[in-house]
Amino acid sequence: MASNPSYKERKVITIGVVSELTGLTERQIRYYEERKLIFPERSAKGNRKYSFMDVEQLIEIANKREEGVQTYEIRQEMLKDKRKDEKKHRRELLRGEINARFGIQKE
Fold it and tell me: Where's the HTH merR-type domain (predicted)?
């Protein structure tokens, strides 16, 4: 059974509100989507919907861009972080399976 996403993960914020929250223009936000740095969902009418986590990510992207970091470099860093997180998650799952198999209790 899938758990409900936290309020920070729910994609409910419109691009106009995201623009106000981040100080980015709607065009900048769409550009970051084109560069595969942000992944909004679409409503039934095709409107972009963002989460609070997306807003936080956009602020980080904007800060890095102000420092002169290129979007390609930001994307590479995001992919590296994602792989690291996936690896950590797999390790935790494996540890849990081993502990369950051998009856090891967590202290």
Answer: 12-81
pLDDT, tens only, 50-88: 999 999 999 999 999 999 999 999 999 999 998 998 998
Which residue type occupies 13? Answer: I
- What residue spans define the domains of the chain? 1-69, 70-107
Per residue in 25-42, pLDDT (tens digit) is 999 999 999 999 999 999
Interhelix angle 26-34/52-66, rounded to 10 degrees, is 90
Could you tell me which of 47, 27, 44 has the C-alpha nearest to residue 35? 27
Distance CA 76, CA 83 (A): 11
Q: Which amino acid is at 48?
A: R
Smallest Cα–Cα separation from 21: which of 65, 57, 48, 46?
A: 57
pTM flag (> 0.85): no
Angle between helical axes of 15-22 and 52-66 (0-180°, round to 10): 50
